[in-house]
Amino acid sequence: MAQIDLAKYSVGTTKSLNLDKTSDRKNLSDVLNTEISFLEKKFAAKEKEAFYSELGLLLSTGVDIKKSFEIIEEDIINKKHKLLLQQIKNDIIGGKSIYQAIEAHSAIFSKYESQSIKIGEESGKLPEVLIELGSFYKSSIQLKRQIVGVLTYPVVVISMAILIVYFMLAYVVPIFSDVFTQTGGELPEITKFLIKLSNKSGSIFSVILFIVLSIFILHKTQSTKEWYRKFTSKLFLRIPVINKLIQKIYLARFCQSMKLLVGARVMINDALDLVKNMIEYYPMEKALEVVKREVVNEGKLLNESLAQHSIFPTKLVALIKLSEEVNAPEVIFEKLHKQYSAEIEHQQAVLGKLIEPLFIIILGLFVGFILVAMYLPMFEMSTGSF
């Protein structure tokens, strides 16, 4: 493990510091905190994954903490990100532990991160914990990409279908309607229905646009509210195929988080509490609240409590029970994480192949309906029955 020698990086002895220098240091710290507050939401999972992975690797090779931070800072382009790491480095050199320096920026780094680092320092496994944190955020990035990948194609196809149908109803159908009106013949019912839709297309699509914007605004303003999270999670759980994929994605995240914490010898009650705060999936959060209470207050085994909640599959519960019997939870959680990750990739690929032709068929039916309604009177005119 890397030896962190802070003494030789001391900025100066306490005796040599006068009141003016102390005041200047506080003012500098205030300025840094003010500057860093502007980037709190920008130091995201991608930056954290790189930071933790590189720091853990450098410390594991014996590089001291000051040099490690300097090496990482050299590759950072964003000035505010670099300023953040410089302040953390200066706090550590000034006598704080890495945990305390990280915890000082609670708006940027979560309790899960700071507590994991604290445990790594206390257990002498800091490099390993940092590398695991990097892996956690790498998986977090993959998770978001997987969800986006599943939802992007349907959203794009539906949007294109709406635009195509709107264009045909608003511009193409009226041209045919004028031609049919001049002939004075009796139109087929399907054509009459389409012309009525065309006449009201502006109102219909205005309502659709209003609904879409309302949903977007609702999501932006209410996404952190409990009622909204409860409603949306129940909604997605009722969608066939998608519900299983989302469940596996968060189960993989649960297993990876538990692997990191139990590997660092975190108490089970603290581990469940930290994981609950990191999962960000309402059904699992509520289940873990009950699990923690039963494990801590009632003395139940983890597998017994998890078995009471449908969000945790029987297979997962059985393997956790095995891990408790053989005292190898870290190995089991790692195996489960890899297995769920592989299943997610496979299911996502299958789902993509199924969704693509399905939406092409739906779009084709929309366009085909319009074409049939428009050309049917023309066929009747050619046969003399119009």
Task: Give a structural overview.
Helix content is 79%, strand content 0%. With 386 residues, the protein is mainly alpha-helical. The protein folds into two domains: 7-109, no CATH class; 135-386, no CATH class. Mean pLDDT is 79; it is low at 1-41.
Explain the layout of strands and helices.
Blueprint: H1 19-36, H2 45-60, H3 65-74, H4 79-93, H5 98-103, H6 111-123, H7 126-183, H8 189-199, H9 201-222, H10 226-237, H11 242-263, H12 268-279, H13 282-297, H14 302-306, H15 314-326, H16 329-383
Helix pairs in contact: 1-4, 2-3, 2-7, 3-4, 6-7, 7-8, 7-11, 7-16, 8-16, 11-12, 11-16, 12-13, 15-16
Features:
single chain; mainly alpha; 2 domains; 16 helices
Number of domains: 2
Provide a count of the helices: 16
The sequence of SSEs as H and E is: HHHHHHHHHHHHHHHH
Low-confidence stretches are 1-41
> What structural class is derived from the secondary structure elements?
mainly alpha
| Helical proportion, percent range | over 70%
* Cα shape: elongated
The radius of gyration is 29 Å
Q: Average the pLDDT over all residues and give the rounded result.
A: 79
Approximately how much beta-strand content do the residues carry? under 5%
Determine the N-to-C terminus distance. 89 Å
Give the tally of β-strands: 0
For the largest beta-sheet, the strand count, sense and barrel status come to: none
